[in-house]
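Section 4.2 – Deliverable D4.2 (structural model, holo form)

The reporting period included a commitment to supply a predicted holo structure for the target in complex with erythose-4-phosphate. Inputs used:
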Amino acid sequence: MDMEIFLDTAEIEEIDLFRDFIDGVTTNPSLMARSKFDNCDELIKAICGMVSGPVSVEVLSDDSDMMLEEGKRLSAIHGNVCVKLPCTLGGLRVCRQLSKIGIMTNLTLCFSSTQALLAAQCGATYVSPFIGRLDDVGHDGIGLVKEILEIYDACGYRTKVLSASVRNISHVIQSARLGAGAITMPAKILQQCFLHPLTDAGLETFRKDWNNRRTN
Ligand code: E4P
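Output (structure tokens):
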């Protein structure tokens, strides 16, 4: 099965640069706050118009009832909005309610396999283990992705594991090797996926050889 590739950004220019290579976009409140757009709804509409797949947008409310209303409102902006909810009791409760009415959900800030288990029980579309932030505090981010995938496989859950907080190419390769259903990465990491010094050196050699060819 294909691994979906999402860009972790709220920058229109970055999405435009990589739109041919991505299945969707993930945003978060920090990324939205840095965007040049003043109106969040307009920004969401603009992003949804640029990609054909899910665009994760996070709720800001703490209270479950308000989170539910916010989730429904976000989803009404565009059919591809995937409502991002925290892996908390409130977030999981809202996940169950939104899933029942067919709204896509992405359970974010997942740092344990029990949170991921509950996300799947609540019918989440995606669960996002934060690899880099776990590594930052001396834990094993990729180890968590592996554990969640094993649990989902053993129990037959359909929730997709979305590797998030990706900080380097190794996170990308290891997520793919493990069979993560999706990954989101910032533009600078996606950019690195295209690069290899031997490709550049080889191109340079080919160009030189062609330019120096005998013309008689
Ligand atoms: C995922 O959905 C988040 O937006 C993101 O991956 C967080 O990454 P960070 O830990 O680099 O902020």
